[in-house]
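Hi P.,

Sorry for the delay on this. The queue was packed all week, but I finally got your sequence through. Input first:
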Amino acid sequence: MSEQRGGPHDAFFRGIMAHSDNAASEIRAKITEEIGEQFSARIHWLELELMPTNFIHPDLRDRYSDLLYRTRLDDRPAFLYILLEHQSSTDRFMAFRVLDYMVGIWRQYLADNRHAPDHGGRLPAIIPLVVHNSPRGRRWTAPTELGELIDIDPDTRTALGPYLPSLRFLLDDVTRIDLDALRRRELTSAARLLLVLQKIATGNTGLDRAMLDWLDDLRALGEGPDPVSVYRMVFNYLLNVGETTEADLAAVVGQIDPRAKEAFVTTAEAIEARGRTELLIDQMTVKFGPLPAAVLRRVRSADANRIHVWATRVLTATSIEETLI
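Then the structure:
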């Protein structure tokens, strides 16, 4: 699954939630809120193991990002499935899609455990959580219960009740949660910043001022095992989706941590270089038509000096080959 699938929202979500401690804090907070602390305590949070997923149809991968964790519920195997819905409008058929993904997880589990002596002939529990964080502030309005999607009248629903599929997914509608509530939620600093920034960053021209309210969490990122990598994810997101100038952001970043400043500079440089690369591709496409995949790979893997040479040469070149000499 590509890190860039679904754009900056998806990449940021996966980058943060692919760390089990961040995912555990978010899932645990919602399970505790909806189901209770006693149930949450039965889940082995320290044993979360990230699993591969391929349950989302390719046509939907620009809309959803999913992560699957395996753990134990008491002494039984269980899965925690977390899915991001970051569009401006909600998906009315999300409950149906979640069921489809769960069936995919079970199918893979059966295939992987066909010959396991402790299989037991049963399916593991799957706890699905959908995180909705609309960049436009639009709240979730679709059903969270599969039965609500079935088109029958109330009397028929009562009569067929035991024979209808039943599924409800946990929904964390971050759009409905104010920033003070997110500050109070028991999350890792990285998970909290993910939810906060996906809530406020898109199109924001005043992120420098907003970041001042979250300096404690930003500084706490420096205490993790790979702070530079996490800082880069945060700054890459801010620079890609926000509308605040690089200079204004840099002034705040300087108050965080020397490693944060270094990560900000290298991230900004990488984004600028990527922009020059994509501009060259646009110029070549306009001049020579759609570019072959091999040419795209060559251009996108080139260093900054080579891109500069090609960007100058494309102005007078008469072919792709002449441009990329």
